[in-house]
Amino acid sequence: MKKQKKRGRPAATNRMIHTAIMLPVDLIEQLKRDSQAAGHGLSTEIRDRLRRTYSEQSSDDPKTSSLIDEIRSLSGHIEHDVRRKWHEHAYALAAFTAGVRHFLGRQKPPGDPNRRPDATSEGPDDPPDVVGRTLARQISDHHGEEIGILAGPSEEASHN
Predict the structure, then answer these.
(1) Residue 46 counted as domain residue
(2) 1 to each of 4, 8, how far by Cα in Å?
(3) 102 and 72 in one domain?
(4) Do 44 and 74 belong together in one domain?
(5) Four-CA torsion 125, 128, 132, 138, nearest 10 degrees
(6) pLDDT band at residue 26 using 50, 70 and 90 as cut-offs
(7) Which value, to the nearest 10 degrees, does the dihedral of the CA atoms of residues 148, 100, 54, 137 take?
(8) Which of 14, 19, 145, 151 has the most CB atoms within 10 Å of its CB?
(9) Are 75 and 104 found together in one domain?
């Protein structure tokens, strides 16, 4: 008797356990839409979101975690107050930007803001705005979208 080859999905390199959870209909529909938009399956979407949640919660930098929480809260308050999300109207974006700048302005770390803390005579000494915009663009490119929340169009255009 000839042995038949197994069909289906190839074995995963990272062993997984099949599980079932109960989700509200609206949540499962949102997850399905998000997974389709991202071009992967529902299971991958759920795993990615769980990993992201754990990653955010396990931050070893409490000040960054606190800032992220404040920015999320600000986003909700902006939406409630002006009845638009921060990215849906220029006024909402301006209010959101002012709030984020306020949060950042409370920080008073030591050092010269125009000199890199790791600067050496051999290394680059780009201004902080160039470093920040470059890293933000790399992050935006990685995520596949342009977001630019801290610099308005005129400010961004003047630096290009």
Answers:
(1) yes
(2) 9, 22
(3) yes
(4) no
(5) -10
(6) very high
(7) 20
(8) 151
(9) yes
User: Can you tell me whether residue 128 is helix, strand or coil?
Assistant: helix
Assigned domain for 2 exists: no
Sign of CA dihedral 56, 58, 62, 63: negative
Which of residues 58, 75, 101 is at a domain's end? 58
Q: Which tens digit of pLDDT belongs to each residue from 95-128?
A: 999 999 999 999 989 998 888 888 765 656 788 9
In a domain, 29, yes or no: yes
**Domain total in the chain:** 2
DSSP 26-64: HHHHHHHHHHHHHTS-HHHHHHHHHHHHHHHHT-S-HHH
Residues spanned by the domain of 88: 60-110
Per-residue confidence (pLDDT) for residue 153, from 0 to 100: 47
Q: Indicate whether this model's pTM tops 0.70.
A: no
Distance, CA of 71 to CA of 93 (rounded, Å): 13
Token pair belonging to 62: 């409490």
Tell me what pLDDT residue 120 has.
67
* In a domain? residue 124: no
